[in-house]
Design brief:
With 263 residues, the protein is α/β, with parallel strands linked by helices. The protein contains seven helices and eleven strands. A hairpin with a 3-residue loop joins strand 7 and strand 8. The structure holds flavin-adenine dinucleotide.
């Protein structure tokens, strides 16, 4: 079974802060990690490979340092690592990101399953998995928390709903976006991690030309949406202290609550 796992390197925080002048993420002093949902995607893919044989390929689009996330994934048990890195990919919206990942997957070729996390903790859109599935015209199931059965023709999974679950059979090849309930991810194996870092298991770096795209189709230029301004909302609440324990101070409090239609 050939499985591709999409992995995003993200800052190790959900408290994303923006530079008020540039609108860019402040990355200084924040460690980068594999997006948490993607670790569950990797665990599921490696488990299936161990049970049924085959190969797990990790694919990530990001700056050169995203190679660390791929090395870690290979330390967990992935067999092949590919980083899509090119200045032309910078500034991509979700559409351009999905298109670029889709093109790379077409170049990788034969695959039975594609695993993604449900959502990245920085961008937070949960759009990439479904968009990649749509681009590749393949069956897709989101919010997967259990894999029941898989064979060459189909896969049976359970997907989480707000008030229960749905059991779905999807034709192969299929794309799944997974949630944390699916499994407990393993740690990287030190020996494998060292191999990945020493380039015994080299990580391929592909640019725009390698995946056969024009620079105008990817990154900021290829994006259908453009961010005009990014800002963190300012706290506009003002506090007021009412002092005293007299009837008057209670009346004053009740008056203010009524005035503001809070009671
Ligand atoms: C309008 C708009 C403009 C943007 N402009 C910029 C910009 O100028 N600069 C900038 O840095 N970002 C920009 N972004 C953010 C960037 O588009 C997203 O970070 C990126 O498309 C992934 O979306 P997400 O983080 O919401 O991932 P989600 O859709 O939440 O991720 C779901 C899953 O998809 C997979 N995945 C997501 N991203 C990747 C990836 N890069 N490689 C491999 N797998 C992946 C992972 O499995 C992940 O768990 C912009 C986003 C929007 C909506």
């Amino acid at each position: 079974m050939n499985i591709i796992v999409l992995v995003k390197q993200v800052p190790d925080t959900t408290d994303v802060k923006l530079d008020p002048k540039t609108g860019n993420l402040i990355r200084e002093g924040i460690e980068s990690i594999i997006n948490p949902d993607d670790r569950h995607a990797l665990e599921a893919a490696i488990n299936l490979k161990e049970a049924a044989g085959g190969k797990v390929t990790v694919l990530s689009m990001g700056p050169p340092q995203a190679i660390d996330a791929i090395s870690e994934a290979m330390g967990m048990g992935a067999d092949r690592g590919i980083l899509l890195s090119d200045r032309a990919f910078a500034g991509a919206d979700t559409w351009a990101t999905s298109f670029t990942l889709g093109k790379a997957i077409e170049k990788i070729g034969k695959y039975d399953l594609i695993f993604c996390g449900r959502q990245a903790i920085d961008g937070d859109t949960a759009q990439i998995g479904p968009q990649v599935g749509d681009y590749l015209h393949m069956s897709q199931v989101s919010y997967v928390y259990e894999i029941e059965k898989v064979n060459r023709k189909s896969i049976v999974v359970k997907r989480r709903l707000e008030d229960g679950f749905e059991k779905v059979r999807a034709a192969m090849p299929a794309l799944l976006t997974v949630i944390g309930e699916l499994n407990v991810p393993r740690y990287s194996h030190v020996g494998r991690l060292i191999d990945a870092c020493k380039e015994k298991a080299p990580i391929e770096v592909w640019n725009a030309a390698d995946i056969g795209v024009q620079t105008s189709e990817v990154g900021l230029e290829g994006s259908l949406t453009h961010v005009i301004k990014t800002f963190a909302p300012k706290f506009q609440r003002e506090g007021e202290m009412l002092e005293g324990d007299t009837k008057e101070s209670v009346k004053s409090l009740v008056g203010k609550l009524k005035e503001n239609r809070l009671i």
